[in-house]
Specification:
By secondary structure, the protein is mostly helical. 43% of the residues lie in helices and 10% in strands.
Length: 206
């Protein structure tokens, strides 16, 4: 039987939510974005939503109240250090497991074994250690300088970079603390859709 439009489940995935500023952003924009995209399910990656270090029950409640149906956690480490400077397996494992354990305590669920090194910094031994812990390591393929709160790009600058560099299979890094991103996000998603792109999950790529 052919798949009908009404049978399609539209999933909105949001991440990486880091710190209370990003949670504030969700509270302002998530429901509106959900309505715009007609999302049936909203999945928020929020393992570092509590001041950038883990997730606590109070912040989890805010994320759900903002419109999330599910909170997931790939591992972005507990303290957000330069992981390339960690060469021993014990220290590396502690950084990863601290977040795993906190996530389990907070949500009652096991963390998805996806790992993104903070700042994209890593060593070959890091990749091996992550693999030995059962993780798949992911990096972004499209990003721009949006993280300086007091030095935000203009909307035109952002569009010039994000529309010209988008590509099939892209993993886009947009910081949710960016004022510019919050202002252009609805329009940006619409422009990407008009270019023929759809949105998926890391599981789709892996």
């Amino acid at each position: 039987m052919a798949l009908q439009t009404k049978d399609i489940l539209r999933i909105l995935a949001v991440g990486d939510v880091v710190g209370v500023g990003a949670v504030d952003f969700l509270e302002r924009r998530l429901r509106r974005l959900r309505d715009k995209l007609h999302a049936d399910l909203v999945v928020v990656n929020a393992e570092n939503a509590a001041e950038g270090n883990g997730l606590d029950p109070q912040v989890a409640e805010r994320v759900f109240a903002a419109g999330a149906d599910v909170i997931t956690g790939g591992n972005h480490t507990f303290h957000h250090p330069d992981m390339s400077k960690i060469s021993d397996a014990a220290s590396f494992g502690q950084e990863m497991r601290s977040l795993e354990n906190l996530y389990k305590e907070t949500t009652g669920q096991d963390m998805t074994k996806f790992y993104r090194p903070p700042q994209g910094k890593y060593s070959e031994s890091n990749l091996k250690m992550a693999q030995e812990l059962g993780y798949k390591t992911f990096f972004w393929s499209l990003a721009y300088v949006d993280w300086y709160v007091d030095k935000q790009p203009t909307a035109t600058e952002a569009f010039n970079k994000l529309l010209t560099r988008i590509h099939p299979g892209a993993i886009v890094l947009l910081h949710s603390t960016s004022k510019t991103n919050s202002e252009i996000l609805d329009e940006l998603l619409g422009k990407w859709e008009a270019m023929g792109y759809t949105f998926g999950t890391l599981a789709d790529l892996s």
